[in-house]
Amino acid sequence: MGEKKRKQQYELHRSTFIFGKKNYKFMLIGLGVIALGFILMSGGGSDDPAVFNEAIYSWRRIRLAPALVLIGFGIEVYAILLNPGEKQDEN
């Protein structure tokens, strides 16, 4: 009898994921925000190395893009710590 119950619990736990659907949605949103931040951070260089381009110091690259990356990491931490509302065990 105990062996059967242990096998049922093993099968139940083997097929479950650590995170819920809600967690994965927030993880994808956070990953998208981080990617957007890195995309906004890119560019601003000059084709000629002897010419300095002031565009590298734009507000978008200095303030907005790093803020988006940090917000994205915050969303990732929230997604990991979010409780997906698992069902209560009935004992």
Describe the 3D structure.
With 91 residues, this protein is an all-alpha fold. It has one domain. Helix content is 63%, strand content 0%. The protein has three helices and no strands. It has helices at residues 2-14, 21-41, 59-81. Helix 2 (21-41) packs antiparallel against helix 3 (59-81). The radius of gyration is 23 Å and the shape is rod-shaped. The protein starts with a helix and ends in a 10-residue tail after the last helix. The model has no long low-confidence stretch (mean pLDDT 84).
Please give the radius of gyration in angstroms: 23 Å
Tell me what portion of residues adopts beta-strand conformation. under 5%
How would you spell out the order of helices and strands? Answer: HHH
Structural class: mainly alpha
Topology (elements, then pairings):
Elements: H1 2-14, H2 21-41, H3 59-81
What structural keywords apply?
91 residues, 63% helix
Short recap of the structure:
By secondary structure, the chain is an all-alpha fold.
